[in-house]
Amino acid sequence: MKPSPTILIISFSLSGQTKGLLTNLICGLASSGCQVQHERLQPLVPLRFPFGSMRKTVGMMIRTFCRQRIAIKPLSSACHRKYDLIILAGPTWSYNPSGPMLSFLDRDGRRLLQNKFVLPLISCRGYWRMHLWGLKRLLHQCGAQMANAMIFSHPAKEPWRTLGVFLKLSGKHPEKMGLLAGRYLHYGHDRRQLAQAEQFGRQIGRSLQAGEALRDLRFQNASDRN
Ligand SMILES: Cc1cc2nc3c(=O)[nH]c(=O)nc-3n(C[C@H](O)[C@H](O)[C@H](O)COP(=O)(O)O)c2cc1C
Question: 169 CA to middle of ligand 1, Å?
Fold first, then answer.
């Protein structure tokens, strides 16, 4: 009998959105016979969410725009086993991968990802193109190959989505605030996207079992692809 495909997921999630998508993706992978090892990147100094004020949120956005790294704890030894696929999952921060993900790529990228197929999962408000482009470049520098990409944008409409995310990060409740009430229903992804993540897990599992290339999978439905 063919051995089960093995997948390492390396993730970071500050406000729980990537985490929710991964819970569903992992269900889909497991139901299609994959063995999944999940490693969560842990900042050395825990980050606070929400940031607590508009001033602190703007400060964080400026630092992340400059790709400030956030130091992370060492990875577990399980990351150094052999895997058929590595999934890198996390949010977009000011058009870039998050600070912990950048630290991971700097410190462990070449050792762990060289000659590997890497599949990114991005959770974002809606502006992911620069993130994906930069990540592709960083993966190339690590000697890895990007197999495809799963992108999930928050489904709320603009300009309420941007306002809502900013207010949420600052510690406010945009769903209940004046002009936004009724226009911005909730922060983050919706149930349809969580179900899609599970479906993507099943698709990935089936492709790996069949020895098919992941680049042929179509993940376009995950978001409105802004
Ligand atoms: C500091 C910071 C900067 C952000 N910048 C962007 C951005 O440039 N583009 C975008 O689409 N979303 C941006 N977001 C929103 C997050 O990508 C989005 O809320 C994501 O779903 C959070 O995922 P998480 O809960 O797994 O951390 C930013 C969030 C933070 C905290």
Answer: 9
Structural domain of 16 = 6-154+190-213
* Claim to verify: residue 162 and residue 94 sit in the same structural domain: no
> Is 123 a residue whose pLDDT tops 60?
yes
pLDDT reported for residue 2:
74
CB within 6 Å of ligand 1 — which residues? 13-18, 60-61, 64, 91-95, 123-128, 165, 169, 188
Tell me which residue has its CA closest to atom 3 in ligand 1. 93
Could you read off the pLDDT of 207-222 as tens digits, one per residue? 999 999 999 999 976 5
Quick count: other Cβ atoms within 10 Å of Cβ 36?
21
97 plus 181 within the same structural domain: no
List the one residue out of 7, 18, 41, 16 whose CA is nearest residue 131: 18
- Residues 133 and 169 placed together within one structural domain of the fold: no
Ligand 1 center to 135 CA (angstroms): 15
Any residues with CB less than 8 A from the CB of 169 and at least 6 apart, and which?
15, 49, 50, 51, 57, 60
Q: State pTM to two decimals.
A: 0.96
